[in-house]
């Protein structure tokens, strides 16, 4: 009667539990943990529910294979749903136009998983000309959502071309957001990752006119974030 959802709270990744139907007082709350591991060894569950698998954690291979088809179909349904919602936001071809669309995008960013979907979200933000919508995105914890993607990418060592492309588009998006001060970057934990990327030459490809980058792009928003030059030597403490 419940489901789990991934949320960010004060910049930290958290899992929330939400009911999927009306639950009467005194009823047990149950949810499908979707074969997530809760430790290396399986732990016996004592809930007594008829639908319980009997243990948490180290799922045996037979059970995983048996449930594989069902899980694959569920992932496919979720992907179709997300793609449909993204297409609805792309209809006008001009980015986000009101706060409702900003809220919808923020909720989608928590659910999406594929690099292609993430790139679509970033393009939506980049194509948004309304400063009110861009500010609303920041108010909807937009930087925290971007931080999750950045943390998942890591330092780019050994990353694929798609990962590097995603890094580049994240940086371009940050350039266009009306970030009022450096404190917001620090509080969202984005700044340390940007600094770490800047120390890795392959992490931030050189922006050029051929990549569709222009200095005019940054005129839409006044932000203290400047993309570091990947060819420059980073300053170390004590220098």
Automatic annotation (TrEMBL):
Matching InterPro entries: Post-SET_dom (IPR003616), SET_dom_sf (IPR046341), SETD2_animal (IPR042294), TFIIS/LEDGF_dom_sf (IPR035441)
A GO term for molecular function: histone H3K36 methyltransferase activity
Keyword DNA damage applies: no
Signal peptide interval: none
Stretches assigned to the Post-SET domain: 41-57
Biological process per Gene Ontology, one example term: methylation
Gene3D superfamilies: Conserved domain common to transcription factors TFIIS, elongin A, CRSP70, SET domain
Region of interest (Disordered), residue spans: 207-239
SMART domains per record: PostSET (SM00508)
Biased composition (Polar residues): 214-230
GO cellular component assignments: chromosome; nucleus
UniProt KW keywords: Methyltransferase, Transferase
Protein name: Post-SET domain-containing protein
Organism: Micrurus corallinus
